[in-house]
Amino acid sequence: MSPLDDFLLRAVLAGIGVALVAGPLGCFVVWRRMAYFGDATAHAALIGVTLALATELPVVAGVALAALAMALTVSLATGRTYAMDTMLGVAAHGALAAGLVALSLIPGVRVDLMGYLFGDILAVSRSDLLVIWAGGALILALLIWRWRGLLLATLNADLAAAAGIVAARERLLLTVALALLVAVALKVVGALLITAMLIVPAAAARAFAPTPEAMALVAAGIGAAASAGGLAASFRLDSPAGPSIVVAAVVLLLLANGIAAVVGRGGGSGGAGRG
Amino acid sequence: MSAPLVSAKELGVTLGGHPVLRGVDIAVEAGEIVTIVGPNGSGKSTLLRLLIGAERASTGEVRRAPGLRIGYVPQRLAIDHTMPLTVARFLGLAGGGREEREHALQRVGIAGLGGRQMIDLSGGQLQRALLAHALLHRPQLLVLDEAAQGLDQPGVARFYRLIEELRAEMGCGVLMVSHDLHVVMSASDRVICLNGHVCCEGTPTVVSAAPEYRALFGFGTEGALALYRHEHDHAHAEGAPGHHHHPADAEA
């Protein structure tokens, strides 16, 4: 009997797999103020699910395609007529509503709507696990490969250009990475909570990190701890797993800021509580 | 004359339907300090951004020497407070080892600040950190966009003296945009007066005597003050080239 026969172990591994990638990627979402952008991308997942069901594509592929299409559309359209947050609000809620409508129109298919909205981590199969870890590894590899360029482009596009880095290309790479993450994380936390897995651990890590690299690592660690802790709590309390993971992450964020506020006074190591 | 580090011919750019620059010819060679002056909105920063490749020209083209290493000092660096970044890590993004980073910090006069968070630096310290970052690129061309902005008068003078020293040490070309007319006029080899196009260019003495320059900045020591009043936008006759070279002995 393989240890992977245990559904709880599979769930823990799935949660940690997503968290290890969402932490570092989430740092860029936080630094570049892309939280709404993340929402718009994630909410397109339901349209992707419909697409997959209608065409018999794998759900992961449908979701990745829809998320990518949404992310590209939004990044091309922003700033034209409406303010950025208005545009993104329209895209996020419009995509969610359209996805819900589209799903209901597919004949003869019973869809676990709650699972797509909030995740169904306890039902993660071995092949789901493979998709999560392989997809996660791909995203991490992209981030590590372009790390310096991504940081410079995030800091200042002109500074990046002088160093021979095209800021628009780095932004596109982040967009693709985000769409991929939505596809692999859908099963774990669901379309509505993916953004939380991106920004909550990253925000919690800010309190302790002196450098971007440290923040990315700490964010991955906090996300992993939240996944394990949230699942444990869900098992004890019989609460839904995805939301429990997010609650655990928020608790860690509050703890982190509390500790930083106490330690940071006088220490002045930068960061916590500023701004 | 050797081949220029960076040059452009007939450069024009239109942003949001408005022509920002038109018919600009410019070249910077190794070892010379070239300063661009001009009123706000005259396209100075846009010209720099075109030359470093951060913006694409609508007409004309920019030529950079093959493999050109550029050290760029932006006007300011708005670091989001959510991003932790020590000075040392910021310098590391430009490359170079630990020793080189420390040497660069020392050279720009902020030795020992490597462990400080970028957002905790004062305006002057931040400008110096940006300059150190640019130096770590081992630049053949140093490009500065109003880099002394926010420094007090003595600070501005020291900053430009440092640029002159660095030019002498490294033999790099320097291209900068500046509002500090008095200091710049003495520190530059060549001055280009820009207002959507090149109004006039030449040595500092020549340019400060040129009618186009005076039309923009006023006369004598009042020049620097006039800068902030620049309601005047001089008119060129339709179709006129709007670009005058001043040989050293003319206009005197």
- From the 3D coordinates, which CATH architecture of the largest domain in chain B would you assign? 3-Layer(aba) Sandwich
Structural class by helix and strand composition of chain B? alpha/beta
Task: Give the percentage of residues in beta strands of chain B.
Answer: 15-25%
Give the oligomeric state of the chains in this entry, treating copies of one chain as homo and distinct chains as hetero: heterodimer
Order of helices and strands of chain A: HHHHHHHHHHHHH
Q: What does the largest sheet of chain B look like?
A: 7 strands, mixed
Low-confidence runs of chain A? 266-275
Number of strands of chain B: 10
The count of β-strands of chain A is: 0
| CATH homologous superfamily placement of the largest domain in chain B | P-loop containing nucleotide triphosphate hydrolases
Looking at the structure, the CATH topology of one domain in chain A is: ABC transporter involved in vitamin B12 uptake, BtuC
Main structural class of chain A: mainly alpha
Q: What coarse outline of chain A follows from CA principal-axis ratios?
A: globular
* Architecture per CATH nomenclature, i.e. the level-2 architecture of one domain in chain A: Orthogonal Bundle
- Mean pLDDT of chain B, rounded to whole units? 83
Number of helices of chain A: 13
The whole-number mean of residue pLDDT values of chain A reads 90
Low-confidence stretches of chain B: 221-233, 235-252
Distance between the termini of chain A: 53 Å
Q: What is the H level of CATH, i.e. the homologous superfamily of one domain in chain A?
A: ABC transporter involved in vitamin B12 uptake, BtuC
Question: Mind explaining what this structure looks like?
Answer:
The complex is a heterodimer of chains A (275) and B (252). Chain A has 275 residues and is an all-alpha fold. Chain A has a domain at 3-192: ABC transporter involved in vitamin B12 uptake, BtuC, CATH 1.10.3470.10. Chain A is 79% helix and 0% strand. By secondary structure, chain B is α/β, with parallel strands linked by helices. Chain B is 32% helix and 23% strand. Chain B has nine helices and ten strands. Chain B has helices spanning 44-52, 87-92, 98-107, 123-135, 153-170, 181-187, 204-209, 211-217, 223-226, and strands spanning 6-15, 18-28, 33-37, 59-64, 70-73, 141-145, 173-177, 190-194, 198-202, 244-245. Chain B has a seven-stranded mixed β-sheet with strand order 5-6-7-3-8-9-10, sandwiched between helices. A three-stranded antiparallel β-sheet of chain B has the order 2-1-4, covered by helices on one side. In chain B, a hairpin with a 3-residue loop joins strand 8 (190-194) and strand 9. In chain B, helix 3 packs across helix 4 (123-135). The longest helix of chain B is centred in the middle third of the chain and has 18 residues, at 153-170. Chain A binds chain B through residues 30-33, 148, 151-152, 154-159, 161-164, 167, 203, 206, 209-215, 270-271, 274-275, and chain B through 49, 52-54, 70-72, 74, 77-86, 89-90, 93-94, 116-117, 119-120, 133-134, 137, 143, 145.
